[in-house]
Every structure is written in C-alpha cells, then in structure tokens.
Amino acid sequence: MVTATAEPRSLPAAEGDGHKHKKNALSDGQGRLAWILLAPTLIIIAVVAGIPVILSFWQSLHQTNAGVDPTTGLVAGGDKFVGLQNFTAIFTGANPVTGSFGTMDRFWNAFLNTTFITIVCVILETVIGVAMALIMAKAFRGRGIVRAGILVPWAIPTIVSALMWKLIFDSSGVMNKIIGKEILWLADSGASFWAIVIADTWKTAPFIGLLTLAGLQTIPAEVYEAAKVDGATTWQQFVRITLPMVKPALVVAVLFRTLDTLRMFDLPYGMIGPGKYRVETMSVFAYQEAAQTRYGPAAAYAIILFIYVLLVAFLFVRILGAEVIGDADAPKKKKKKGDEEPAGPPATALEMAGGAH
Amino acid sequence: MSATTAEVREEHLSSEEIAKLAHPQRPLRQRIGVVLSYVGMGLIVVYCILPFYWMVVSSLRLPTEGQSTEFIPSPASIDNYKGVFSAQNNFGRSLINSVIVAGTTTILVLLFGIIGAYALARLRFRGKVLVLWLIMACSMFPLVVLLPPLLKMFSSTSPFTWFPYWINTYQSVILPGLSFGLPLAVWTLTAFFKQLPVELEQAAMVDGCTPGVAFRKVILPLAAPGVLTTAIIVFIGSWNEFLLALTFLQDKDKQTATVAISKFTGTTGFDTPYGTIMAAGVVVTVPLLIAVLVFQRRIVAGLTAGGVK
Lengths: 357, 309
What we know:
- Chain A is mainly alpha-helical.
- Chain A has helices at about 1-5, 20-25, 30-60, 85-90, 105-140, 145-155, 160-170, 175-180, 190-215, 220-230, 235-260, 265-270, 280-290, 295-320, 335-340, 345-355, and strands spanning about 60-65, 80, 95-100, 100-105.
- In chain A, the strands form two sheets. In chain A, strands 1-2 form a two-stranded antiparallel sheet. A two-stranded antiparallel sheet of chain A has the order 3-4.
- The two termini of chain A are about 15 Å apart.
- Chain B is built from 14 helices and no strands.
- Chain B has helices at about 1-10, 15-20, 30-60, 80-85, 90-120, 130-140, 145-155, 170-195, 200-205, 210-240, 245-250, 255-260, 275-295, 295-305.
- In chain B, helix 5 runs parallel beside helix 8, helix 5 packs antiparallel against helix 10 (about 210-240) and helix 6 packs across helix 8.
- Chain B is flat and about 95 Å long.
- The chains are: A mainly alpha, B mainly alpha.
C-alpha cells in the first residue's frame, strides 16, 4: 500500500504552467471543446430538471383558486400567490391524521414515516449486505450463481415486487402460513411498516452486497496474512482491516440507498395503497396532493423533501466523508507495484507486519 | 509450493507421501469455513430467489386459486398467462409502450451521455467539479418534485395554456425520464472511459487522427462493452419507472407495463386477481432477468463503476 501511494504520478513533472498545449494535445487547453461536448447533457438537464424544479418552487408559493368567482358566477380558475403559506401550513396542524406516531399533521406523519422507514431499512440493508459480501468474498466456487441470484431482486421492477409482497403478506397468504399467525400486514397497521421494511430490504440489500464485494476485492490478501502473523482474531481483522478498507465503497452505497429510500414511492403505493397513513411516505403524500390538483401544497411538500434529501447527502459527504465525486482530475493510480513484481509473500507479509506497528 | 515439492523430492520420499504433500489436508477449521461459506451462499440464493419463486408459482395456478399457499401449483395451469394477454387487459399494448418509452429513453440518454462522459473523463477544464456536482445533484432529487409543474404544463392548464396537451403521450414520460437516466449514464460511462488508457488516443493522434476521429475509431469501439452495460442499466431503470408513467399515462392504450400491472382488476371487479398480476409480473421481469443473467459480469462492473442506484 505504501509503495502504491508513494509512486509518482505518471505525468511528467515538467508539465507545468505555460507549456501545457505542447505536452498533451488531447486534454489541455480544450476547455471550449469540453463545454461543447457537455452542452447537450447540460441543456437537457436544465430543461427537464432545472426548469421544472424552479417552476415547482414557484408553484409552491401559489394555491389554486377554489370556489366560485362572485362577479362572473363561474368556477374560479388559476392560481393566487400565497407566499410561504403552503410551507407554514405544516405547522398549523390543519390536516391531522392518525399514523404510527400518534395524531399529527399529515405532513409530519409522512415525514416521520419516511425518516423511520429509511433509518430501519438502511441499517438492515447494510448489515445484511455486508454479510452477503463477506460470504461471497470467501466463496471459491459458485460465485457466478450467487451473483446471478443477487441480481434477481435488483432487476424486478419495484412495483412488481410490491405486488409480489402484497400477495405474500396477504392475510391468508404464505407469510402468515409460515409464521403461523394471523397478522393483517396490509391493513394499514403497525405491521404494514414492517412489511414495507422487509420488502425493501429484500430488494436492495443484495445491491449493497454487490458494491461492498467490489470494495472487499480491492483489499490485498497480504494485509490479512500480516494481521494473522500479528495474532489478530477474526473479529479484530474485520473491525480493523475489512471495515476501514471497504468504508469508501460502503459509504457511497449506503448514501445512494439512503437517498433512494427517502424518495420511496412505488413500494408503499403498490403494496399498501395510497392514503394509508401508517406507511405514507413524503413522495406518496406529495403525489396524492398533486393528483388531487392541490398543486401548491404538493409542490411545497416535494420541495421540502428535496431539501431534506440534499441535507442528508450533505451530511453524508461532510461527516462520513463519502467520496461521491471522487478525484475528478487526478488520473487513477495506474498500477500497484505488487502486481508486477513477483515479490515473495513472506517478505511482503513481514513488511506489512512491520509497517503496521 | 513448487519449492517445497522440490525439496521433498530430494529426500526421496515415496510417491504416496509426495501425493499426500501435494494435496495437503486442510485443517479442520478451514474446512468448516468452506462448508459455512457454501451454506451462506445457499442462504443468499434462497433469500434472493424465494419470493420470486413464489411469484412464479402463484402465476402457474388456476386463476381461481390465486391466493393458494401450496408450494407447488396443483393443478398447474397457464390460464393466468392467457388472462394477461386477454383483450380486457390489453397487456400486449402496454408491453409495446414500455419498449417504446424505455428504448427511446435509452437511445437519447446514450446519444448525449457518451459525448458528455467523454469530456468529463478526458478533458481538463475549469468547472468540471461543478458539473460533476450538478449531475450528481440531478440524480438525487426526488422525481415527485417534477410532478406539480409538469402536470399543469402537460395538461395545458393555466398559466401553461400555450403548452400542447401532452397527457397520454410518450414524450410526457420520456423527457422527464431523461432527468434520472442521463446522470446515471454520464456517471457510469465516465468511469468506463477513465479505465481506457489515454495513450490510445495519443497514439491515434500521432498517427494523424483528429481528436474526434480518435474518439470515434479508437475509443468508441473499445468502450462498446461499457456503453452496452450502461444501456442495459438505463433500460432497466426506465423499464421499471412507475411514478411518471402513473401520473402522465392514464389512457389504457398508452400505459406502460408497470402501470398496467398496478391497475389490473379481476373479472368481478372486487377480488384482486393475484394470479393474473403475478403472471404479468413474470412477463415483465423475465426479459430483464435474461439480460441480467447474460450480462451479469458487465452489469456488476457497471453498477460498481458508477456506484449509482
């Protein structure tokens, strides 16, 4: 490891200021070309995402006119500007519903549902995913079969998996038959929450497993050999070597899962149904409001969800150091020295052991 | 190993002993470890496959036995599959719609994503980090944010009365769909392009190619596996898309398969036709599974390279 990081960049040191264009005709002084190539992507993103988000913000400051126009006698249409009323309305408790967390405004109910589903799901998915990765990393044969199997939940459309779990969790379905109880999983009860958690964990834990496995495979075997020489137990190896070294891959996987779960829509909508307050997520709530033409509040809730997602992403990057962007410009370290030199394993292990102290 | 064997030979051991030394018995702990890893792998496969198995089994029952909990359908029947494609459900049309929507999205995304990703992977310019963050942020935002303004716009309600009526059109799903497909593609492709050594283009340009020709004739053929992987990942994502299609495609003739499945009703209208739904689910999933199984190595490489979704 030390040798790999200490290796000088492959770029010649002479490539400094002023002489760039002579050194690398492909990648220097071609900022204009880069922007031309990126223009279609950026324009599309601006049109299909940027402008709608701005419009959504504008929408969140408005409400649809309701009732009859007194002067014309026609049903009033159009919007009226209401300022931040759609946002402040969440604090007035005007729309109380009873969910898993007691009676509260429907927005806060959805907010808490989203938050708790995300926390529980992501923790379970991470634990199961890492366990899966550890097992797969140990495997000698049959890794192909496991990998194929692991991609099955990933490939199934979420809405199909929602309906599949709906059948499994039916009150007279196979889940109740196996556990020998009569739980009303789908009846907007406390069990519905766990039904969602189980279905989501099933679908996405393998995904975390895959990404973690990729991280595991970059850990050189010598590190473990050195640890064994030093008398580290399996648990110590896991905590001191495996976890720190898969952390970059794992943190990114967990970040993406967290953001995805915060936006969860298909699963509660397809499995339990809309308007079920025990499992109503913010996406379902905002969708319901929009579908009932209450565009203003819908946009406000969606914007709050957006800010929430951004905040969580920011915290991940800041606190856990998720390397989302990676090293944008520095070329990847080309090769590890160990790959080329037929260095004797004992010597390397000793080196590592020495370096570890 | 070879060194040890050589030493052993020098000491003139019997061939049996050599054979024994060449295949050393693993210590007990290690053998238990091997067994445990196989058990663990079995558990993983069961975990992943079992619910899907239940879907397949349930689709092969008689339509009247949709909620049966027998682990093997008896009698087995393909009536549910016939029901899926009956005129009432119009599911064949939905599949075609899904192919059109997902296919167009994939092609558009690749068209723009390839050149953008190439610029991000190879060229050095000011503001690259900003662009990367922008694309990343774009893949983060909840799709539901798009719904309120787009619903108004596509249904040409005020103040968007100037906008053409786009509800029940393919473009109403394809265009917003680009907002998650494009970041995904750019991200994955950038990782793939970065893996190709820059010396390739440099050699081509030394031989007199312009950067454009070097890209087209050298890089693109080499990056074809990466492009294919990206295409599969984007296609699957777009094929599985539900929220946009549910919102903008209400007409039965324009629904995509995912929306159609969610709206299946039984013949009587009250019972949930689980058998038919499961059969439709299998029909929607099987093409993806075949693609996934054929390209599993590539897909895993693509997912880990991009690290997205």
